[in-house]
Each structure stands twice: as C-alpha cells, then as structure tokens.
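Exercise 7.
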Amino acid sequence: MEATSTRLRRVFVWELPVRVYHWINALAVVGLCVTGYLIGNPPAIQSTAEASHRFLFGTIRFIHFTAAYIFFFNFLFRLYWGFVGNKYADWKNFIPTGRKFFREMRDVLRIDILLQKNRDHLSVGHNALAGFIYFLTFLAFLLQCVTGFGLYAGMSDWWFADLWVWVSGVFGGDFGLRNWHHAAMWFFIVFAIIHVYLVFYHDYVEGRGEISSMGGGWKFIEEDVFEKEESKVE
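Solution. The predicted structure, written as tokens, is:
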C-alpha cells in the first residue's frame, strides 16, 4: 500500500491576549474552586494556637476575593477581545448562526462520544461544539460573577460592592444566592475535567498541536482544510 502524505501549513491561530486570558482564567478558576469549597465546607482543624494568630480562613477568603476580581476583569477583557481580536477569537464563533453550525456540532458529538472518524468537520480555530460550549460557559461566568459579588456586597462598604446589593433579592436572599454560587462552582469543576480530556483527545485524533497552540499560538493545519476555511471569508 502506498503511503499518502498530507501537506501541513503552520497557522497562527491564538493571539497573545487570548492565550494570556486562558491561563489567567485557568489559575483563577482553580483558586476560586479550592478556596470556595473550603469556605462552603470548612475543615475542623485542631490547634492550641490563638485563633487571631492563625487567621487561616481570613487568608482563604482573601485569596478567594482576590481571585474573584482577577476572574471578573479577565472575563470582561475576553468579551472585549471577541470584538477586536482576529477571526478565531471573534464572538461569532461561539453563537449558533445557521444550519451549518448545528451540523458541525452533530459531527463533533459523533467523534467525541461515538469515537467516529470524520475529518469533514475540522475547523482551524474552535469547532462549532467547542464554541457553543464556551458560550454557555461565558453565561456561567456571568452567573458566578453576579452571585459572587451579590454575596460580597453584604461584607464590604466599597462602592463597587454596593453596585450588587440588588442581587440577593433576585435570588431569594443570601441562602438561595449561596446555593446558586455553589452549584456554579461544580459546573466549572465538571467542565474543567471534560475540557482537559477533550483537548488531549482532539490533539491525538487531529494531530494539529492542539495543546501546544495555547502556549505558542500556532497550529498545523492541512492545506485543503485551510484553503476551505479561507474561502469562507472571501
């Protein structure tokens, strides 16, 4: 059998602001989930030291609040970059805009769940399913920010915190607010597990440098796929 070779093109996909956003967001989410879990389920720590000398939960809360501000403003920056970044970062990649979008989502589901081989769906940037999942994740980001700052409003006299005092009433008081905030935390944990698995899986199946692209920005794309993607823009 004669081996066939595929010509690959080195394509710059993820701009530096997108890559920086990604890793800042990943670190912030890890910090928020770990400290948030400890705040919601505080461990019983036995110690003879004076509580005011330890200040353990004060430190945990400080880390949580600091990570929350980083998470929030990083999220706002990504929304901004969806309008000024390159075509792979554009907001249109995240919202279904036609039948082709849904058809590609179906094809990716067949690959991810049924492990079928189908290269017709390949996109240079995010595939349609990944883009739509990220859109839902952005909505979860928004929910987490709103509920988090709603809880924080009762603990701070800063003007920015006062902007969120109305949130508690919308969610039925602090009890409901905490439940929504806690549930969103588990969404991020489940999302992170699935996200990491699929990144490695698609890197293996497609062989395009999916993992390294979020470090350097470059992917290796088949010439025919790249030309097809370019023809859509023209």
